[in-house]
TrEMBL record:
<feature type="domain" description="NmrA-like">
    <location>
        <begin position="2"/>
        <end position="236"/>
    </location>
</feature>
<dbReference type="InterPro" id="IPR052718">
    <property type="entry name" value="NmrA-type_oxidoreductase"/>
</dbReference>
<dbReference type="InterPro" id="IPR008030">
    <property type="entry name" value="NmrA-like"/>
</dbReference>
<protein>
    <submittedName>
        <fullName>NmrA family NAD(P)-binding protein</fullName>
    </submittedName>
</protein>
<dbReference type="Pfam" id="PF05368">
    <property type="entry name" value="NmrA"/>
</dbReference>
<dbReference type="InterPro" id="IPR036291">
    <property type="entry name" value="NAD(P)-bd_dom_sf"/>
</dbReference>
Amino acid sequence: MIIVTAASGQLGRLVIQQLMQRVPAAQIVAAVRDVSKVADLAAQGVQVRQADYTDPASLDRALAGASKVLLISSNDLGQRVAQHRNVIDAAARAKVGLLAYTSVLHADTSTLGLAAEHRETEAAILASGLPYTLLRNGWYVENYTGSLGAAIAHGALAGAAADGRIAAAARADYAEAAAIVLASAAAPQAIYELAGDQSFTLTELAAEVSRQTGKQIPYANMPQQAYLDLLLNVGLPPALAQLVADSDARAAHGALDDNSGVLGRLLGRPTQTLEQAVRAALA
Ligand SMILES: NC(=O)c1ccc[n+]([C@@H]2O[C@H](COP(=O)([O-])OP(=O)(O)OC[C@H]3O[C@@H](n4cnc5c(N)ncnc54)[C@H](OP(=O)(O)O)[C@@H]3O)[C@@H](O)[C@H]2O)c1
């Protein structure tokens, strides 16, 4: 039994789709806090179990009989370590054969503010004594391509990453990598540093958007505080705006870059290119 937590989220759904291509649906459990969100998965034969990271009893029920668990990190910023500990503790009680966790690229050395919660979670996983795999995911390219509409409307793509190179990859590529690791009969590696094959700067992203739209969309680099103010002005919740502005500013110094090629090798094919990511977002 392979159990995927947060399976109602964007990454979780993609992992389940990829798992269904590799193992029988009846061996897959979608653990979600609101089961009404995944009726479509139940209809395809996936087991659905209710599991809230803040409710240890629900996690014990959800993880019963698990051989492998993928803990997808929560999006509840600031609460994540306590929530993840609840899942790790339940996995230890269930004596699972593998606990995989979606961490962040270079979690041990990362200067990103958001890496602290991932480092603490990784430490808790190691302390649990369970067999583990850390899927250290880099930036989703959708973090940028998801807001191209605003960039096109305003005639500029804003950010604070200066000329920093960003080895982002598609959510779908990270999801496929997770499914490959979970479905494999072979013992997985302990740590995978996962990122796109080709890094890009935000100037290069803006140039690609300009090329594909036929409109001039330059990259407008801003100081971190000004970018934070812009994000707050467009309505991002403060914690998320802080995280995005901090990450962009750290990216200026290489915090989101990687040239290991691990993700592409795991997938057995090149990762999605910037050209493809922009095309998909504009479609
Ligand atoms: N690498 C990157 O660039 C990047 C970018 C954004 C996020 N992330 C991280 O990667 C994770 C997965 O990404 P995503 O795109 O799938 O995010 P997402 O679509 O926001 O999904 C987050 C999931 O977390 C679940 N969740 C939140 N609190 C929970 C709780 N108390 N108990 C159980 N489940 C809970 C949500 O459940 P509901 O469906 O019930 O809301 C949702 O399914 C995020 O949560 C975040 O930690 C990474």
